[in-house]
Amino acid sequence: MLTLTRKTDYALVAMSELAHSAPAQLSARKIAELSGLPLPILSGVLHQLHAHGLIVSVRGSQGGYTLIRSPDEITLADMIEAIEGGTRLAICCPDGTESVNEECDLASSCRVKEPIRRVNESFQHFLSQVSLAHVAFDKVSLDVGNSTATY
């Protein structure tokens, strides 16, 4: 099963709260209150998002967090990379943050290596096309074959 971690789930929820409140700042406590996320884990997630340049932190009694860019300019790939360090479907696939440095024992005779790499590349491209605005405001459009569906 391909599943992102709970921390990535929390990052998506927190970023969505920030998108809805933009340009106002929200404290970690307020984000936790609005979303139901546990404050200790959320604080770590916010720290990672800040370290990766996705949010700005303002200290003080009126401080809080705000998006560093428009929700349209922050991608799902950006948010996943900040928390997970990237994604890949198989060991032989690059994750978008570094070259492949793990070698599979089957690499020399694998019939699916190149097709899986192309699927991985398409997956990475899709993640880079979905913005925070799409997720936060429920406007994710999926192109599958010749049909387009919005969920």
Question: Notable features of this structure?
Answer:
11% strand; 4 strands; single chain; two-stranded antiparallel ribbon; Arc Repressor Mutant, subunit A; elongated; 45% helix; mainly alpha; 151 residues
What does this protein look like?
With 151 residues, this protein is mostly helical. The chain folds into two domains: 6-67, Arc Repressor Mutant, subunit A; 88-150, no CATH class. Helix content is 45%, strand content 11%. It has helices at residues 6-21, 28-35, 39-51, 76-84, 113-129, 132-136; strands spanning 55-58, 64-67, 141-144, 147-150. The protein has a two-stranded antiparallel ribbon. A two-stranded antiparallel ribbon has the order 3-4. Helix 1 crosses helix 2 (28-35). The mean pLDDT is 87.
Question: How many distinct beta strands?
Answer: 4
Could you give a short account of the major beta sheet? 2 strands, antiparallel
Q: Indicate the low-confidence ranges by residue numbers.
A: none
Radius of gyration: 18 Å
Helix and strand content put the structural class at mainly alpha
Number of domains: 2
Average pLDDT number:
87
